[in-house]
Amino acid sequence: MSAEPPVPALEETKLARPKDPDRMTAADTPHPVFGHYRLRLTDNQVVTISGGLAGFLSGIVVCPLDVTKTRLQAQGSYLRNLEDEVKINNFEKRRYTGIIRTLGTIWNEEGIRGLYRGLVPITFGYFPTWMIYFSCYEQFKKMYSYFIEDDTIGYFASAISSGAISTTVTNPIWVVKTRLMLQMTKGRTIYDRFGDTVGAAATQGGIKREYYNGTIDAFVKMYHSEGARSFYRGLLPSYFGLIHVAIQFPLYENLKKVLRVDGDTFDKKTMTFDQFCRLVLSSSLSKILASGVTYPHEILRTRLQIVNSDSTKPSAGLLKTLLSIYKNEGIPGFYSGFLVNLARTLPASAVTLVSFEFFKSYLQAATS
């Protein structure tokens, strides 16, 4: 009898055994969300997505304070210096004063919708603004490093260049955002709440009092009634605001170095609470210093954005607006709503910059 053919040995399973944790590399470690799958993103795409997400998150967090700041800035000096007949109409009790009181007034008169009025343009404004800004900023840092030896000067030039691009592209969104935040209930703006006399004075002062039914309606009505140039009102003072990022980002980059949090390893698994606090401190200190120097441009920008494009009143031009504020309000007029702005920008800066660092490292871990 012939011998039976040998039984072939069972093939070893193709499923790899789990590696020894001590021998695993960073690439072997499963991502907390994507597992062993890896995203195919370039470094530029990682920065772009991270910047957009950081801006979107920041817009949601700070919208109520942004509404408060805009209303304090927009009520203007002429509202505080009208004739006695207006003050008899309980004007002093109705005007916005202070952070807490303004928040309370908006809540009592308009509810939660009032605090989030303009949420759509603000979130969709922050998203492209920071997406464009961070994308350009990272590219400019690389480009300037070839012929600028000093890092601080390179950061300064990168901040100015990227800020100019993002400001120009997104200015129409911010004009619409400002108009929407000045609205209250159906058919009313903040100027109507002071009474007919003040409302009429606002119109005579060149203030646009038309009511908009949302973001798209605002774009359409502004285009038909004021033309395309209405979307670029306040652009010139916004360029002056580039000094802000030119101060903040070099400070932020250097503070990260001083506090030893300038690495690229801040993902979900490695960022410690101590590192998180240092990033928050870096963003906050840089924001406070930059805001103190550059805040007056925000007053100018807001006043210019709320006037009619065809207005010939003193508030229509940059220089005349500047002189009008100084004449009627003095130096304090250029810092109207500054504390509200600081209360808004500090958390906004922390949320934007820290979340950008987080999203960036998180996505880098998913692509490695």
Automatic annotation (TrEMBL):
GO MF: pyrimidine nucleotide transmembrane transporter activity
Topology within the bilayer: Multi-pass membrane protein
Subcellular location field: Mitochondrion inner membrane
Keyword vocabulary terms for this entry: Membrane, Mitochondrion, Mitochondrion inner membrane, Repeat, Transmembrane, Transmembrane helix, Transport
GO BP terms: pyrimidine nucleotide import into mitochondrion
Source organism superkingdom: Eukaryota
Basic and acidic residues compositional bias, start-end: 11-25
SUPFAM superfamilies linked: Mitochondrial carrier
Stretches forming Solcar repeats: 42-143, 150-258, 278-362
One Pfam short name: Mito_carr
Gene Ontology cellular-component annotations: mitochondrial inner membrane
Region (Disordered): 1-28
Stored PROSITE patterns: SOLCAR
Transmembrane feature ranges: 46-65, 115-133, 153-176
Protein family (similarity comment): Belongs to the mitochondrial carrier (TC 2.A.29) family.
Full protein name: Uncharacterized protein
Source organism of this protein record: Ogataea haglerorum
